[in-house]
């Protein structure tokens, strides 16, 4: 059997070690997604407050809208990363053990 880099995996200990590494990376990535989501939520809230603020000068409204558009894109990207992580965490351990993907 070979790992994702094409290196030979010959023992159960090697498979277990690789699975542990993958779990650690996945856990770290999930934590980053959580932190990014929290930061984005806060930023989106502030931008939404600016968008409805009655004394916001008209010349700044376009800039605030640009920020809102960028935050929306970033939010979609973080959601996509979250979905991809979920899929990878379900599929990758099977592939490490040489099992077919679901």
Task: List its traits.
102 residues, mainly alpha
Notes on the protein architecture:
The structure is a single chain. The protein is mostly helical and 102 residues long. Helices cover 78% and strands 0% of the residues. It has 2 helices and no strands. Helix 1 runs antiparallel to helix 2. The radius of gyration is 21 Å and the shape is rod-shaped.
Short description:
Helices cover 78% and strands 0% of the residues. It has 102 residues and is mostly helical. Helix 1 packs antiparallel against helix 2.
By DSSP, the count of extended strands is 0
Question: Largest sheet, described in full?
Answer: none
| Helical proportion, percent range | over 70%
The overall average pLDDT, rounded, is: 85
Query: In oligomeric terms, what are we looking at?
Result: single chain
Structural classification: mainly alpha
How many helical elements? 2
Ranges where pLDDT stays below 50 over 5 or more residues in a row are none
Gap between N and C termini, in Å?
Answer: 19 Å
**Percentage of residues in strands:** under 5%
Principal-axis shape equals rod-shaped
* Rg on CA atoms, Å: 21 Å
Query: Helices and strands, in N-to-C order?
Result: HH
